[in-house]
Write a structure and sequence with these properties.
With 263 residues, the protein is mainly α. Helices cover 66% and strands 3% of the residues.
Length: 263
């Protein structure tokens, strides 16, 4: 991807302009939500037998591919791992900024914006995290959390291939994320934005690296869960739902224990 300083600044004009269309975006999303049975509790399953089969496939994928890569990743020098984690987290901040605005959290949006600008410039496109040393720690936000903050329930629970646990609300949120997120706009949709260009390879590379980084950070936790769980599917479901609720409540407890689960 190609960057220049003026382009980085201009992207915030794009985010601000995008947030002006909040009413149209949220009206569309909320209307779609009403077509789904959101009276269902999070503990309810959309199609449990299918979800369990997909979960089994995902665990096979993890054991054969993701876990070995994560173990190799953990053998890298700490500066490389920290730099990679900082880089992917910095890109994720782009999605957090508009969602802070959507939730009416101007301070959060300001902190996230300042964090991204500082880390992208002084921090060498995010490989370093000087913003955190200045007391700016951006809270990760997405559309699913924004919907939850407006009082929309999660709907029924199910499992997606590779992507893992989700709910009806969070699935709609993921779709909306691809519209709201400037990084997705530039990479997956391959649209040039204020001089910044990218492609689908960039998108997949960053998302894949994020998954590996998370899996590596939680290697011990995953091993413990697999060894001690009577029903591993139910354990992952419980963890996911608790983690998402904690994020909606802006609680730090889940991040302290499990990093950034799922979405």
């Amino acid at each position: 991807m190609s960057y220049n300083l003026s382009s980085i600044c201009k992207i915030f004009l794009y985010i601000a302009n995008y947030s002006m269309n909040l009413k149209k975006i949220t009206t569309f999303i909320f209307s779609t939500i009403l077509l789904i049975s959101f009276e269902a509790k999070a503990s309810d399953e959309c199609f449990e037998s299918t979800s369990r089969a997909i979960f089994k496939f995902n665990m096979g994928f993890d054991n054969a591919i993701l876990e070995p890569i994560a173990k190799g990743y953990n053998k890298l020098p700490e500066p490389i791992k920290n730099g990679t984690s900082n880089f992917t987290s910095n890109i994720a901040t782009l999605l957090s900024i508009p969602n802070h605005l959507f939730q009416g959290n101007l301070r959060g949006a300001g902190d996230a914006t300042a964090s991204f600008m500082i880390n992208t410039t002084i921090g060498i496109i995010g490989f370093a995290n000087p913003a955190e040393k200045l007391g700016l720690k951006s809270q990760k936000e997405d559309v699913g959390q924004t919907l939850g903050s407006y009082g929309f329930g999660p709907g029924c629970y199910f499992v997606l291939p590779i992507l893992g646990p989700t709910t009806a609300r969070d699935t709609l949120g993921m779709i909306a994320d691809s519209i709201v997120d400037p990084f997705s706009h530039v990479t997956w949709r391959e649209n040039e934005l204020f001089g910044i260009s990218g492609n689908k390879v960039d998108y997949v590379a960053v998302k894949g690296t994020t998954a590996v980084d998370f899996r590596a950070d939680n290697e011990v936790n995953f091993d413990s869960l697999e060894k001690n769980s009577i029903d591993l599917y139910a354990s992952f479901k419980s963890l996911y739902l608790q983690d998402r609720q904690n994020k909606i409540n802006n609680s730090q407890s889940s991040e302290e224990e499990w990093g950034n689960l799922g979405n």
